[in-house]
Amino acid sequence: MTKGAEYTHGHHESVLRSHSWRTAKNSAAYLLPYLKPNMTLLDIGCGPGTITTDFATILSEGHVTGLEVPNSDILDKARAYAAGRGVTNITFVAGDALALPFPDASFDVVHAHQVLQHVGDPVQMLKEMRRVTKPGGIVATREADMGGLVWYPEIEGMKEWQQGYIQVARANGGEPEAGRRLHVWAQAAGFPKESLTLSVGPWCYYTPEERAWWSGLWADRTVASNFAASAIKHGIYTQERLQRDAETWRKWGAEEDGWFTLLNGEMIARV
């Protein structure tokens, strides 16, 4: 799934803490108006399956397929989550997003959330998404733009963390400012410009509970996820800087007036 790229986050608990919070409502609202109950949908990079399972409840007369890299642990978590919600019109499979294991024109909708930024060839992935979508169907993507973060108050070290994250993600072969590039990648993949509908969807964290959750998972992710190992491997970070950046996150989370917004680029592409 990551031709020439390494997944910056991995599947550490601190990463899944974030991914498991995601729902179709808070992470794919831009796509929901296009969905009809009898559609078939492929969700690439389904992770723990929370968004995927939501799609299956919406497409109650259709079927949803979730695809992840070969990792029995995360796929088992996704299957267990769907089963726990009593959802049966859903299948989870392992596969490569750059060479999807499906025939041409297999799905009404092909969706990916926060995946293109981590693959080595986002244009190839979009070509594959287009290939397996039926004529008249939809390719839908949503990607964060890590250069478009906004926070308050200005905590010493936060800008350095942002710059360090971007360096590490690019060293791993990804593109952390993916949100602003979706339309460019799509046109390179063969989508006419007029077939694209673009939007922006923010995540905003400001309540005490949200600040504690968001700052805590990033503090833990900085020192304990795959990010830490790859940051040191590439010579971008030292162990001391990792600890310093984690503490920066904790300081922001303790600010009573703390506010953080992350912008996500969104794209609907008609096939």
What kind of sheet is the major sheet? Answer: 8 strands, mixed
Q: Helicity, in percent?
A: 25-40%
Q: What would you report as the Rg, rounded to the nearest angstrom?
A: 18 Å
Overall pLDDT: 93
Q: What amount of the residues lies in strands?
A: 15-25%
Low-pLDDT runs of 5+ residues are none
Structural class: alpha/beta
The count of helical stretches stands at: 10
Q: Could you say which overall geometry the principal axes of the C-alpha atoms support?
A: globular
Distance between the termini: 23 Å
The run of helices and strands is HHEHEHEEHEEHHEHHHE
Number of strands: 8
What does this structure look like?
This protein has 271 residues and is of the alpha/beta class. It is built from 10 helices and 8 strands. Strands 1, 2, 3, 4, 5, 6, 7 and 8 form an 8-stranded mixed β-sheet that branches. The two termini are 23 Å apart. The mean pLDDT is 93.
Task: List the defining traits of the structure above.
single chain; 271 residues; alpha/beta; eight-stranded mixed β-sheet; globular
